[in-house]
Amino acid sequence: MRFLLICLLAALTCLTSCKRIEAKLDRLARLAGLTTAAEEVPKKKAEPVLTAEQQALEAKVLNSAVFETVKPEVVTPKVETFELNKSAVVSILGYHDFKARGGSPMLINGTKFAEQMKAIKESGIPVISLSDVLEWRKGKKNIPEEAIVITMDDGWEGVYTFAYPVLKEYGFPFTIYLYKKYVNIGGRSLSWVQIREMMKNGCEVGSHSVSHESLRGNKKRNEADQQLWLLGELKDSKEFLEKNLSTTCTSFAYPFGIFDESTTELAQQVGYETLITVNSQKVTWESPLGKLGRYIIHGDSDTNFKLATSFRGRGDVSSSHFLTSSAKDEKGNALVELSPVPEELVKERQPIITAKLARLGTVAPETVRLRVAGLGTVPARYDPTTMTVSYKLPYRLRREDCQVTLNFKRAADQPDEVVGWRFKIDLAAAYLPLRLP
Ligand SMILES: [Zn+2]
After folding, report:
1. What is the reported pTM?
2. 3-state class of 246 per DSSP?
């Protein structure tokens, strides 16, 4: 039996170069009172000091069924716990109708919309779905430190003609708020076919009532009739959309943004989990789900778009000069060299963040600011000779995602520039026992 075990261990060690498996096998061998060839020279090694959390994980690893199945396969421990990013800020944008040219408050031209989406894409600020926001608020998942949600009210065909192709190209999810009386009725209303097609490409559907009347109601109705009518506006519209689109409709946008406490309460009883206003506020961990802020984007003014897309005093995506984290110079070299590189999965939970700016030519040192998700602006070091910004994280990251934003100006009188990127942390790998050198 012992000989068999040794053979198996040797075979497994040869079969794989995976450090984790090696480390695990070493431990198993030690546990069984055996030593592998690699371990014979340094007889006694100090055990790495493990935290209770790591010990628990290790116990799980040691108990796994690797010797029973004979397959050189390791069950990777899943780290179920994650720290909720309660400092995240979400900006919900609200659009209405679209057309080819011109622009009025509720009508935006297709070119302008495409420019706005491009600016968002280049800013690196992720666009997430409204259900991501809800899942986050329920504590089920994390969202990036800063994020944008796109919504469109009323169900105009212009959504399908002008906005949808752009959103689809960028892979941006979005939500449309429909009211029962204006769905699939011809004219300029969206058809079921168009809606279903969009739903296959990132579109979620919310309710915008039955009639689109102000929910405050009509003075001619008495109290009882008003309540009955209100219930219909909320409930019928929800059921209508759910039945016709085979979906669940958990979000409601108040027509004209008008609501009061009792409306919100009734809407929540009917089953809406997020209720959307037009009150130009960002959504945070504290925002009541019954009245989430939203910026209505107008076709004849950029003000709300600028307000919506500036986060924590930083310039908005259109006026700040955003450098995409992947921007290259004419020779094909990255303009800003970032480490950890964007979207990289790092095993080090306390990495050093660096950004080399030398390829930009000049940078005004006093304008350099580095922000890290959850920490805010951090005391990063800027070395003017190498033009490198660096910052060592003060503690081990417990989140699976880290968002970094770097602001600077090339000269004091030049516009603010922003590089935003994120990297991921392999929390599971960082928990595995270390093999001593
Ligand atoms: Zn509306």
Report:
1. 0.72
2. coil
